[in-house]
């Protein structure tokens, strides 16, 4: 078992990674908890045992679950269970479950403890770590949410065996970004160590900038185009697949701006190919529409802002020239 910590002072928490990590659940229940509300989805089929009184709540599948109305229903169910301010919510699922369970925990009784047991690769290396929770509104993904750190995270790599192949590959899209955040050579590690190495990178970034005032934005590498493709909505893309296309795009933009050389561009392509990830825009993309969506990005405060690679590694680059962005989209 690999044991890590997200170091955030009094809100620091443990992350356990490995086969059978779910066996650690009992020992990670914070003291003083007298009731547990499990939040999961029917298709996941993973449950946790506790001697404490507990209830199980099922969310709808997919982004449909990331709605304020679902959070309201969940909070009503918590109240029906008699969950108090001292009790515990446990999210068992992918990023959708941990985002919604975490957000519900952040607002129920003005905030109760939450423990995450992420069951997708994307959830284990990214969504369940770092305390970002939230839901979508028609105007954008994750526009309503809270920073709410869990009291612990259990990443049982055995549970990934039942993950549909495409969902596993989607997690690889987020994993690919860690190669450019200090994770060179990740593809040579066995799965448990690879998951733990990504968590360590994310934990270090979150510890330095918990509320994304600065360096945490680097975790959005590849996400500007990814979010535009997801909002556009016509394409059959999992989140990590969209991120992979976004990473390729960001590398091409960095190369066009002279920030990285051909060898570094090739390294991006190698990493995306190692994980069998898409690198081209889906058929039928509308360049004008993508440019318009870039303008709505959270980072777009000083012109069009992208996370781009460069001689010093990744950095947040404001004012990326529109003609370059447009040319590279057209070329892709
Ligand atoms: N909070 C963050 O920091 C953060 C970071 C990245 C992504 N996200 C969010 O995460 C979400 C995507 O998460 P995801 O990719 O995990 O997708 P997901 O949560 O939708 O899960 C994918 C599918 O796999 C199923 N599933 C989950 N675990 C399974 C298992 N072990 N076996 C079989 N089936 C299983 C789920 O029921 C679902 O149908 C997006 O909403 C994204 O915005 C959040």
Describe this protein with a few key phrases.
11 strands, Dehydroquinate synthase-like, alpha domain, Rossmann fold, alpha/beta, 332 residues
Low-confidence stretches: none
Measured between the Cα atoms of the first and last residue, the distance is 42 Å
Overall geometric form? globular
Count of runs of 4 or more consecutive helical residues: 11
Return the domain count: 2
- Specify the CATH class of the largest domain: Alpha Beta
Largest sheet descriptor:
7 strands, mixed
Bound ligands, each once? nicotinamide-adenine-dinucleotide
User: Average pLDDT, to the nearest integer?
Assistant: 95
- Cross-sheet strand order for the largest sheet: 1-2-9-6-5-3-4
Q: What are the secondary-structure elements, in order, as H or E? A: EEHEEHEHEHEEEHHHHHHEEH
Q: In terms of structural class, how would the helical and strand content be classed?
A: alpha/beta
- Taking all Cα atoms into account, the compactness measure Rg is 20 Å
Beta-strand fraction estimate? 15-25%
What is the CATH third-level topology name of the largest domain? Rossmann fold
The CATH architecture classification of the largest domain is 3-Layer(aba) Sandwich
| DSSP helix fraction | 25-40%
User: How many β strands by DSSP?
Assistant: 11
């Amino acid at each position: 078992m690999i044991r890590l910590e997200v170091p955030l002072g009094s809100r620091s928490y443990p992350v356990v990674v490995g086969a059978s990590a779910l066996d650690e659940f009992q020992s990670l229940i914070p003291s003083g908890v007298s009731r547990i509300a499990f939040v999961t989805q029917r298709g996941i089929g993973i449950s946790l045992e506790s001697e404490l009184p507990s209830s199980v709540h099922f969310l709808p599948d997919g982004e449909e679950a990331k709605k304020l109305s679902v959070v309201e229903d969940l909070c009503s169910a918590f109240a029906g269970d008699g969950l108090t301010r001292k009790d515990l919510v446990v999210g068992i699922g992918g990023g959708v479950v941990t985002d919604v369970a975490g957000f519900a925990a952040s607002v129920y009784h003005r905030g109760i403890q939450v423990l995450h047991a992420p069951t997708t690769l994307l959830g284990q290396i990214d969504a369940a770590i770092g305390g970002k929770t939230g839901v979508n509104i028609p105007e954008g993904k994750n526009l309503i949410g809270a920073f709410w750190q869990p009291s612990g995270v259990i990443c049982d790599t055995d549970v990934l065996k039942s993950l549909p192949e495409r969902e596993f590959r989607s997690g690889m899209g987020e994993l690919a970004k860690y190669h450019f955040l200090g994770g060179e050579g990740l593809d040579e590690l066995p799965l448990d160590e690879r998951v733990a190495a990504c968590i360590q990178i994310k934990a270090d970034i979150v510890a330095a900038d918990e509320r994304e005032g600065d360096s945490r934005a680097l975790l959005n590498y590849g996400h500007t185009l990814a979010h535009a493709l997801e909002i556009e909505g016509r394409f059959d893309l999992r989140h990590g697949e969209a991120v992979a296309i976004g990473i390729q795009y960001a590398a091409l933009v960095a190369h066009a701006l002279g920030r990285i050389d051909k060898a570094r561009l090739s390294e991006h392509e190698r990493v995306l190919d190692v994980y069998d990830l898409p690198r081209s825009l889906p058929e039928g993309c509308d360049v004008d529409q993508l440019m318009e969506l870039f303008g709505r990005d959270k980072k777009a405060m000083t012109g069009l802002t992208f996370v781009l690679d460069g001689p010093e590694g990744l950095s947040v680059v404001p004012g990326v020239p529109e003609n370059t962005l447009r040319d590279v989209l057209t070329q892709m």
